[in-house]
Amino acid sequence: MLKFLFQGDSITDADRNRDDENNYGYGYPNLFAAEVGKAFPGEYYFINEGISGNRIVDLYARIKSDIINHQPDYMSILIGVNDVWHEINDKDGVEPVKFEKIYTMLIEEIKEVLPDIKIMILEPFVLPGTGTSYAWDTFRSTLEENAKAAKRIADKFNLKFVPLQDEFDKACEKAEPSYWLRDGVHPTAAGHAIIKDELRKAFDEIR
To answer: 14, 114, 140, 189: which one has the fewest Cβ atoms less than 10 Å from its Cβ?
Structure first.
């Protein structure tokens, strides 16, 4: 079977059970694995290595254990919001210039070892909410810089970029932000469905 690895922070982690490799959490990895697994029985094996609180530097630090050692055929990456959030709250974030530098190093080193891997870079996103409104302007503007960096990296390495911010902005025309992201960062079930849908579109284009 082909291996599909989900990589990222708490949005990807989604309270997964680390003692059960078949438990993908309650979020978009579980929805995606269910849908793709049903569509292509026995063709894909899914692994979720998202870890709550991770920034790009944390993802890079576990490149060997949680990415390369799995030898995945496909990988999705969703990272970037904690790089902003941790800086706002604790002065322990990662500024956009460094975010792009470390993200580039991450992809370069993965591709050196796994030249045939197909990577999908998901755009980080944010909405007004209980966890973001106190510093909204900084959240949105800085995360937009990280999103642009993610897009440049995808273009540089000819990887599939998965836009998400516009999808969440458009969704807010139908229901309030908290319907999609419970605190402006973490998706509800409906929010995870948005991510799953966009990731599925990208996956279908490269599989």
So the answer is: 189
Amino acid (1-letter code) at residue 179: Y
Euclidean distance between CA atoms 23 and 46, whole angstroms:
10
CB 98 within 8 A of CB 152: no
Whether residue 181 contacts residue 191, with contact meaning beta carbons closer than 8 Å, is answered with yes
CATH number at residue 77: 3.40.50.1110
Question: Is the pTM of the predicted complex or chain greater than 0.90?
Answer: yes
CB 46 within 8 A of CB 113: no
Separation of alpha carbons 37 and 60, rounded Å? 29
Domain count, the chain: 1
114-140 pLDDT per residue, tens: 999 999 999 999 999 999 999 999 999
Which domain range does residue 75 map to? Answer: 2-206
Sheet holding 74-78, edge to edge: 44-48, 2-8, 74-78, 118-122, 160-162
